[in-house]
Amino acid sequence: MARTTLKRVHGYLAEFDSASDVYHASEQIRDAGFQRWDVHSPFPIHGLNEAMGLKRSILPWFVFFGGAAGITTAFCLAYITQVGIYPTVVQSKPANIFTTAAFFPIMFELTILFSAFTTVFGCFALMGLPRLNHPLFAAKTFKKFSDDGFFICIEARDPKFHQAETRALLEGLGGKNIELVEDEL
Amino acid sequence: MSAHPITLDDLPRDGERLDLTKVSKLNGLFLVIGGLGLVASLAYLLGFLGEQKQAEFAYSWLFAFFFFFTITCGGIFWTMLQHASNSGWSVVVRRLFENLGSNIGWMAVFVLPFVFIPSVQNALWEWIPIHHKAAEEAVKYNADHSGANWGTYEGLHHLAETDHSKHILTSKYGYLNLSFWYVRVVVYFAILGALAYFLRKWSIQQDKDGSFKHTFRSRAFCCILLFPFALAVTFSAVDWVMAMDYTWFSTMWGVYIFAGGAWGAMAVSILALTYVRSNGYLHKVTSGEHYHLMGKLLFAFTVFWAYIAFSQFFLIWYANITEETRFYILRNTGGWWYLSHVLVWLHFAVSFVLLLSAGRKKRTGVMNALCFWVLLMHVVDWYWLIIPERGPSLSEGKVLWLDGAWVGDVIALLTMGGLCGWAYLRRLSKASLYPCRDPRLLESVTATN
């Protein structure tokens, strides 16, 4: 496979010894005002969201509108076909707006279905998935993140990123095996 | 995060005891309201205010009784569920549920008017006077025919020959007969009382001896006895409320009652938690996390109740069978129609939307207000279940609403509320406010969502 020699700096990757170390380092990086950075750990760490200063995800709004679209679709589907186009008279029930009770199951189902779709696909979109590769996979130590390694990566696209100062910051926080990760273009 | 990870050494070794003098204001208020209400209620129940008032008040008493009875059963249910599912998070709040469930002893007192006052029975359950009449017919027949040995059942058959609508009572005789009815009242209270008594007793014993055998024993006990518990709650609801109209039936009934009761019990317990916290207790062991966890269950039961309520309505509405639809036709007539809509929009929709947010569930002030809302809606729900039967039953179908009878409803509700609240607070002070030597205590204290 042809390879170019052009490379772009992705960011610094630093390894930490424990969940508690990476937690406290996150608080410092949050307070230093970094925006484009992430923590990689083999398991979820309670309270890390707050330690990283992560804002509440916008995903619930996607789901809300997904659900609202679902309930509207189902109502229109049932109402237009069962009342408008071809009134279906069952058990001498009227075919009008008060028949809505009969539409509830489908309204319920489509609300769930559309919410679930927006959850899954919205989540993918927010995470930038699917993607074929990630620059961090090229880092030497990174594989440990799924076993016993705790990592912080500060990306170069962060406005506060500085080649020397950011490295010094990570060292000061107790980061080990600090590596400048590069992305092949 | 706390400054250092919390350990058992940070907690008081013998738990926290509620000092009754600290809560004497509220407790005194409960006792005064309950005591005065009891005098008024007895005047109604014993017929000092006339037969009509007595009959009207029978419904009030059933409404209030059933409201507190289902909340008590909810307290027993949550205690059992926490044992059966081996919940770690809930240990610090479990004693609140245990004490709530132990109100069942008071419920056994409040049920007595239904058992011992025939005119109360006759006003509430139409099938009972019919059975009495059938028994009289049988006696008359036996006197006229030598060698005849008629019982109530044959008497009912005889009545049904001229009035076919009574025939259903002969078909239901195996279940719906007075002797069995009395036996069932005793069985319900025996089951529920034993559950509440033993679970609380073992839990308090563990406070003293710290033995984990109590934990294992309670777990095994609850896994097996959830089944009879469910039967007791279901059939008590059938006997006391569904049987007000002996022609009507619904298979969702027991679940509906249970869903409402568990919902109300959770709201009461959150309020109780806030109340003891506001008096300076449980600050070391509970936090917003516990409110959040309890709030989630409250939310779950908001949805569960709506699911069951809609299913019951939907099946009956769709099938459109005469003997089933009566329940909803009555509750969609006149003023009751508005109350039905209150259940849809305020009981479900508003509670659902307000309880949806995770952040709101962690804020104790907001959760409190929501729990008062939940209890108010639970009152409306049970009012809607029981009171619509009163007008048509007592006026032989002429009126929907008896003017002035609502006074009795308020009195009955306040009486039982006062006495139950008073008994509950007193019981809280009898032992530590949380199971202080439960093996899962630390897990519960540090629980996060």
- Average pLDDT reading of chain B: 93
Q: How many separate domains of chain A?
A: 2
Q: Name the beta content range of chain A.
A: 15-25%
Largest sheet of chain A: 4 strands, antiparallel
Rg of chain B computed from alpha carbons, rounded to a whole number of angstroms: 24 Å
The structure class of chain A reads alpha+beta
Distance between the termini of chain B: 13 Å
Beta-strand share of residues of chain B = under 5%
The CA-CA distance between the termini of chain A, in Å, is 13 Å
Uncertain runs of chain B with pLDDT below 50, 5 residues or more?
Answer: none
Order of strands, main sheet of chain A, comes to: 2-3-1-4
Q: Give the total of beta strands of chain B.
A: 0
- Say how many strands of chain A there are: 4
Poorly predicted ranges of chain A (pLDDT <50, ≥5 residues)?
Answer: none
Along the chain, the helix and strand elements of chain A come as: EHEHHHEHE
What overall form of chain A do the CA principal axes indicate?
elongated
What does this structure look like?
The complex is a heterodimer of chains A (185) and B (449). Chain A has 185 residues and is α+β, with helices and mostly antiparallel strands. Chain A folds into two domains: 7-54 and 129-184, no CATH class; 59-127, no CATH class. Chain A has helices at 19-32, 48-52, 59-85, 100-127, 163-172; strands spanning 7-16, 37-40, 150-155, 176-184. In chain A, strands 2-3-1-4 form a four-stranded antiparallel sheet. In chain A, helix 3 (59-85) packs antiparallel against helix 4 (100-127). Chain A is elongated. The model of chain A has no long low-confidence stretch (mean pLDDT 89). Chain B is an all-alpha fold and 449 residues long. Chain B has one domain. Chain B is 73% helix and 0% strand. Chain B has 20 helices and no strands. Chain B has helices spanning 24-45, 51-84, 91-101, 104-110, 112-116, 118-124, 127-144, 152-162, 167-171, 178-209, 213-240, 253-278, 288-319, 322-331, 336-356, 358-362, 364-386, 390-394, 406-428, 441-445. In chain B, helix 7 packs across helix 8. Chain B is globular.
